[in-house]
Amino acid sequence: MAPRVLVSDKLSPTAVQIFKDKGVEVDYLPDLGKDKEKLLEVIGQYDGLAIRSATKVTEKVIDAAPNLRVIGRAGIGVDNVDIPAASRKGIIVMNTPFGNSITTAEHAVAMMFAVARQMPAADASTQAGKWEKNRFMGVEITGKVLGVIGCGNIGSIVASRGVGLRMKVIGFDPFLSEERAAQLGIEKVELEDLFRRADFITLHTPLTDKTRNIIDAKAIATMKRGVRIINCARGGLIVEKDLAEAIKSGQVAGAGIDVFEVEPATESPLFGLDNVVCTPHLGASTTEAQENVALQVAEQMADYLVNGAVSNALNMPSITAEEAPILTPYVKLAEILGSFAGQLTEEPIDAVEILYDGAPGTMNTRALSAAAIAGLLKAQVQTVNMVSAPLMAKERGIAVSEVRRDKSGVFDGYIKVTITTKKQTRSVAGTTFSDGKPRFIQIKGINMEADVGRYMLYTANKDVPGVIGQIGTAFGKAGINIANFHLGRDDKGGSAIAVIYLDEPLTEEFLDELRGMNAIGQAKMLTFDV
Ligand SMILES: NC(=O)c1ccc[n+]([C@@H]2O[C@H](COP(=O)([O-])OP(=O)(O)OC[C@H]3O[C@@H](n4cnc5c(N)ncnc54)[C@H](O)[C@@H]3O)[C@@H](O)[C@H]2O)c1
Ligand SMILES: O=C(O)[C@H](O)COP(=O)(O)O
């Protein structure tokens, strides 16, 4: 059945066409996102949800969406999506990180000019027939200091436009390197320095606990008198009432505000003040940007729903469409190895180490590790998948580590999953052959070569004569057919293991009978998703 996607915000028709072309059924209901109740009612039918900023994807929406596999944000900010709730349910959240950057940067620059020359007020006055030539005295931008807070995609573009406008650009961003600053032709400074020196301040950070209220009364008091402030990033970065007071007192000469603490903003302390220019979250609203983000989000979502390719996901490593078929057998292998370890472990897991030897070490190991952890946790949480697994492991206090090394044995490469609990360390290794099928090659340090079946009896026993006969007799008596039998041991008379493939799972009674045999230490029925 074709996957179904709901588009619940206004998107370019390009998105709808791309979904259809790629074999995805699509319902385009651009006003639905604003109707919370209606969204809750219908979301259960969909595999994908494409949104902009109007649809609020809360935990409640996610709980009402048992089939949802992907949320695609046609734009950058995902503060309207409860990502931890989505991750817990295994839903991928993706955005389009570059599609509207230039457009938003241009909006910030336009705001800077609009504020410097009081364009909107001058326009309104002129069109009202007042001709107030003396009222609208502006300032030049050339030679002024532009302070950019947040020098990521958009901030860097604004910075480069500022340099082009012959401004002196200074930037604050904890992740900005001196080299990158030099490349952009700007000076890297501390925030206090930026506040002190800038004639224009423009914000381009996400809204986080660190950036919330980054511009409040205290910060404004340290700024140059007559500073002008632009916010085309997120409401919540500026305390609106503090900015309003500062504009009234003349400490701040003007502000260009595209985003608000509460949106849609129908009221704000900034409304009606002289030289405050407001737009209704229009940063990304150009034909070009909307075309870019619509096209990109539809392609990304369809690629995931149809081919399993993951790009620009915020809660899952990327997997390209070219990579997906090569990675798939190793994803399966990693999941089976994790599942093997998880099913055999009955006490809390403290740590898991995933070793990549040879070929798989050159692949996307973050995706492979996510699959191994998903397999490991499946014994406890049925709904876990590659998206939710890393978060669930973290929540359970499981330390996850990855080791990669060059090919070291006869295989082109293999994966080994080692788990540590308070009582023991247990490992299982496997590889895939050219048929793409997974094989176990080592269990608990004992070499063997065994393919993977749906139902598998695992026994650990002492290496003494007669064990195989005893097990075989018990199976014969119970009329149970053995599909395949693999054995391995460490040393003569030491520890041995057997993996026995069956057509059906064994009953607990039969397992107890096996456990009652002298030489058998452990007998466990394992099930694999093959
Ligand atoms: N108005 C709009 O319509 C519109 C359109 C697009 C994006 N946005 C918003 O613009 C913002 C920037 O988007 P982007 O694509 O440039 O994001 P980005 O992730 O590329 O850049 C954000 C930068 O902020 C920096 N940063 C993080 N914490 C910081 C802190 N405490 N102080 C200073 N810098 C910090 C990061 O290091 C990063 O370099 C986002 O909030 C996004 O949602 C708004
Ligand atoms: O983060 C973004 O991409 C912008 O805020 C754009 O939001 P919009 O898609 O609702 O215009």
TrEMBL record:
Residues 456-528 form the ACT domain. It comes from the Bacteria. It catalyses: (2R)-3-phosphoglycerate + NAD(+) = 3-phosphooxypyruvate + NADH + H(+); (R)-2-hydroxyglutarate + NAD(+) = 2-oxoglutarate + NADH + H(+). The keyword NAD applies. Keywords: Amino-acid biosynthesis, NAD, Oxidoreductase, Serine biosynthesis. GO terms for biological process: L-serine biosynthetic process. One of its GO terms (molecular function) is phosphoglycerate dehydrogenase activity. Belongs to the D-isomer specific 2-hydroxyacid dehydrogenase family. It holds the Pfam family 2-Hacid_dh_C. The keyword Nucleotide-binding does not apply. Its EC number is 1.1.1.95. It comes from Aureimonas flava. InterPro entries: ACT-like_dom_sf (IPR045865), ACT_dom (IPR002912), ASB_dom_sf (IPR029009), D-2-hydroxyacid_DH (IPR050857), D-isomer_2_OHA_DH_cat_dom (IPR006139), D-isomer_DH_CS (IPR029753), D-isomer_DH_CS1 (IPR029752), D-isomer_DH_NAD-bd (IPR006140). Catalyzes the reversible oxidation of 3-phospho-D-glycerate to 3-phosphonooxypyruvate, the first step of the phosphorylated L-serine biosynthesis pathway. Also catalyzes the reversible oxidation of 2-hydroxyglutarate to 2-oxoglutarate. This is D-3-phosphoglycerate dehydrogenase. Pathway: Amino-acid biosynthesis; L-serine biosynthesis; L-serine from 3-phospho-D-glycerate: step 1/3.
